[in-house]
Write a structure and sequence with these properties.
The complex is a heterodimer. Chain A contains 2 helices and 4 strands, in the order βαββαβ. In chain A, the strands form 2 sheets. Chain A has a two-stranded antiparallel ribbon. In chain A, strands 2-3 form a two-stranded antiparallel ribbon. In chain B, a hairpin with a 5-residue loop joins strand 1 and strand 2. Helices cover about 45% and strands about 10% of the residues of chain B. Chain B has 15 helices and 14 strands. Chain B has one domain: Cytochrome p450. Chain B has a 5-stranded mixed β-sheet. In chain B, strands 4-14-11 form a 3-stranded antiparallel β-sheet, with helices on one face. In chain B, strands 5-6 form a two-stranded antiparallel ribbon. Chain B is α+β, with helices and mostly antiparallel strands. The chains are: A alpha+beta, B alpha+beta. Chains A and B meet through helix 1 and helix 2 of A and helix 15 of B. Bound molecules: protoporphyrin IX containing FE and iron/sulfur cluster. Protoporphyrin IX containing FE (HEM) binds next to helix 4, helix 11 and helix 15 of chain B.
Chain lengths: ~60, ~400
């Protein structure tokens, strides 16, 4: 599984970081980004899906890869 | 309080200050969603009230047609933006881009999750101190004696103003936000608040500190110092936006736990649920409704909106939309799918949301650790404030 954050949609609700700090970082201005290249370790897949389902801006997406 | 005509037709003549709406709006929203999802009223100007998640979020994102130049749910008659002290209002909340963009960027770093971690201990100490003050009495007004006391002191610390003026700040902010039917009182509250910040600003102009107010006063954008009125407006905003809102969320959450024994026991037994529970309580009891002003005549979902009309950004109703939230009217502490918009949606997403979440979590953690068993006092009256910010203002609880 691989994910990305769409910077044009992200508004910094920080729900992703709150749920899975291992996968996301949010900068001082609220912009979230995935740590590394967005590859999700198998053991974090469930929680990555949780982050996707809780982002109010639909800014996190699963990508092919 | 002036008497107002009771509401017979919520679709065409709603009143967000009607007592039944302030006390329990959920059934009203449900009925509206089924019959007229964007209601209208001519009380206090022409206002629209969306109740579906998709409409509220779509309007929040359409900043071209829905401007933030007027964000008061209950307008201050005759006295909107041409305030000589604050010609820009309270940016970023009352601004559209481009003013919104750069004023928001001045505030955001102060409320990043990293900064907020640094305010955690202060908040915890505050909560334990408050609880120590009333725990032996076996009863407390959890709204006035607890919830209301927390956020104002944290914000005072961040702004660099004395925490022992908390009650004064609280009074000004309540005057500004809660006494919708009393324009004079609202004006008095906001004037006092701005004069206070103005005097504090004078002192910092000479001797800057390392607080938010000092930083705002000395901020430059692209090498140019920002106008003083913008710094004052943003500082006042942080106080106004940061305290009524958060204490309402703390109060509503304690009200829920006092009246829902299963949830209270579960949260005590499974403290690891707290992070999700905080989001769920924010969803179910979202305190904040904002407004937008329509910029040009537009038909939205069949509603003929006119330039100058207002749309009430009903984030609380969006969060109870059954199309988006399963069993929307039930609190499910570990709800897994929860795209709630208690902090808004789009570019005005609450700049203080990290702080608000932290305060709510710590206030509940400390309360439950010290007082795991509590309920509403017999015959004790719970009163709610509503309009722009909904939450309990008296919440008499007993515990043994
Ligand atoms: C539970 C508590 C809170 C809730 C529910 C809440 C809710 C909201 C909402 C819904 C908005 C969006 C306004 C709009 O769309 O027009 C907003 C904006 C804002 N809030 Fe909060 N808020 C809370 C606490 C705080 C705190 C603690 C602060 C302290 C700094 C704060 C500062 C702000 C600011 C500065 C904005 C304006 C952001 C902008 O316009 O870009 N809020 N808040
Ligand atoms: S939850 Fe969504 S909007 Fe919020 S920071 Fe994460 S990606 Fe951005």
């Amino acid at each position: 599984m691989k994910i990305r954050v769409d910077a044009a949609k992200c508004q910094g609700h920080a729900r992703c970081y709150g749920l899975v700090p291992e996968l996301f970082d949010v900068d001082d201005y609220g912009l979230s980004s995935v740590i590394g290249d967005g590859t999700v370790p198998v053991e974090l897949e469930e929680r990555a899906k949780l982050a996707i389902a809780n982002c109010p801006e639909y800014a996190i997406e699963e990508i092919a890869g | 309080m002036p008497r107002r005509a009771p509401v017979a037709d919520w679709a065409r003549d709603f009143d967000v200050l009607a007592p039944e709406y302030v006390d329990e709006p959920f059934g009203i929203w449900e009925a509206l969603r089924a019959t007229c999802p964007i209601a209208h009223t001519d009380r206090r100007g022409s206002n629209w009230l969306p109740t579906r998640y998709d409409d509220v979020t779509a309007i929040a994102h359409d900043i071209e047609h829905f401007s933030s130049r007027k964000i008061a749910v209950i307008p201050l008659e005759g006295a909107e933006p041409d305030d000589p002290l604050l010609p820009y209002g309270l940016p970023p909340i009352s601004a559209d881009p481009p003013l919104h963009t750069w004023t928001r960027r001045l505030l955001l770093p102060w409320f990043s999750h990293r900064r907020v971690e640094g305010y955690e201990q202060l908040t915890r100490d505050l909560c334990t101190g408050l609880i120590a003050g009333f725990i032996d009495q076996g009863r407390a007004d959890a709204a006035a004696g607890y919830a209301q006391q927390i956020p104002v002191r944290v914000i005072a610390h961040i702004l660099g103003v004395p925490a022992d003026l908390s009650d004064t700040f609280t009074g000004w902010v309540r005057d500004t936000l809660e006494f919708a039917d009393d324009p004079e009182r609202r004006r008095r509250g906001s004037d006092a608040l701005i004069s206070y910040f103005s005097a504090e600003a004078d002192r910092r102009q000479a001797i800057p500190g390392d607080d938010l107010l000092s930083e705002l006063l000395h901020a430059e954008v692209d090498g140019v110092p920002i106008e003083r009125s913008i710094a004052l407006g943003a500082a006042a905003l942080v106080l106004i936006a940061g305290i009524d809102t958060t204490w309402s969320a703390i109060g509503s959450s304690l009200w829920h736990l006092a009246t829902h024994e299963e949830d209270r026991r579960r949260l005590v037994a499974e403290p690891q649920l707290m992070a999700l529970a905080v989001e769920e309580l924010l969803r179910a009891y979202s305190p904040v409704t904002m407004a937008r002003v329509v910029t040009e005549d537009i038909e939205y979902e069949g509603c003929p909106m006119k330039a100058g009309d207002k749309v009430l950004m009903n984030f609380p109703a969006a969060n109870r939309d059954p199309e988006v939230f399963e069993s929307a009217d039930r609190v499910i502490l570990d709800r897994a799918h929860n795209r709630h918009v208690a902090f808004g949606s789009g570019i005005h997403r609450c700049a203080g949301s990290n702080l608000a979440r932290m305060e709510l979590r710590i206030a509940l953690e400390e309360w439950l650790a010290a007082i795991p068993e509590f309920r509403l006092a017999d015959g004790g009256d719970v009163t709610w404030a509503g309009g722009q910010v909904r939450g309990p203002r008296t919440l008499p609880l007993v515990f043994s």
